[in-house]
Amino acid sequence: MSCFLVLNSFAGDDQEVAAKKLALMFRMAPQQANAIIEKVAKGHVWRTPREVSDQQAAVAENYLKRIGFQVERSGQQELVDQIAGSVALADEPQTDGAGQGYPGGEDAMEAGPPGQTPGMGTDLKPPGNGGSRKTGGSPQEMPIGFHGTGGGLFKIMLINWILTILTLGIYSFWGKTKVRRYLCEQSSFAGDRFYYHGTGGELFRGAMIFGAMFGLFNLGTYTVGQVWGVEAQGIAEISGLFLIMFLLPVIMVGAFRYRLSRTAWRGIRFSFRGKRKSALWLYIKGYLLMIFTLYFYWPYFDAKLQKFWRGEAYFGSHSFQYDGKGQDIFKAYLLMILLYIVTMAVPLALPSLFPGIDKKLVSILVPLMWIPLIVGFLYYTVYLARYHWSKTEFAGGRFNYDATGWQWLSLQFTNLLIIVFTLGFGIPWATIRSRRFLADHLAVVGNMQLSQVVQEAQKSSALGEGAADGFDMDIDIGI
Asked: For residues 238 and 272, which has the higher predicted lDDT (pLDDT)?
């Protein structure tokens, strides 16, 4: 497989030294390397005009990162050309011909970084759609691909497990980051891979800050107990737990903001701009209305949640749009409620309907009654996913998710078998199968206009992420 190399930022200490090394690597004139670094340092993106093999890219990527560049890999040019317009910041520097070719000729890039064996070759085809059925699509359908393997993820997770045990859990933050980076960078859109900029140190610092806050809370409740007694300490602990539950939406915003701000595509970062106050009010209002309506408000609450989490997500300067409505999914929700009532009522009614029924038979029938409910819930989940994706668009392109309930049920069942019969060691393969399933069934339809998308970096810390880990919350909503 092959790819392009993309330089999207420079954070080195010595620009002159970096320019010399860059010129040596690509066999270009020093003034050309200086022009590239100046552009990249100002926020522009430079991409190699020719593809390189993945093996060669890995060596070059490590070398460039040591110089001070932030490097990404970009995919197949033919698929890139399907997009109407180009990302504004992806323009290559024009000064002195930099980026337009290598003075060393066609084989200049073949030499790779200093010390690398020349002639690796760049004629291999770049990664395709990661097994997706959406190959050779028209400009009206841009594919989403996934290229990871279970074996590749297993190696990462195995090392993570070992080092986490040896470091008494400290390495888990770096291990989680490695897993996220692998899954992110094995995903692609229109042939270009995503990139994850998060670090384990950021997660560690966020968790430490949250841990310190939680420690102060425990110290406070202990002090209350010592001064006013055990009863007062119990009241303080319960009040604190309610306060934490009350603040969960605030923590979720911080965590999701961090996750998106560390994800990029073609050098342009994602961001989340939803306000913590808005999230807090949205959840409080939704929970109260569900209580007062006996949970019949849930479809409307779900639509509002999707609008908040998706509609406040940005790629560069443009936001995603969600136009779903609660009344559209209310009927499906009523069917699920009806199925739940039947599942609960039938076991209770069996002794009355059949007074002479054997108790052993009842004990067998009761668990079997849960099967239709579980299957129905999985079908309902797929229905919601199809609806929510169909109501999501970005820059003129609308998402299309075409998975069926049976396909989703088969995936979940086989994943469960893999995990159970491997005693948990099959989790990496189950994870990869789920990611590939999403890539195979999700596409963007329409003439997506990206020509006006520019970088608008948003500051974000890992405190929300660390807090989310502390509560063991899953905040990945699929964007």
From this structure: 272
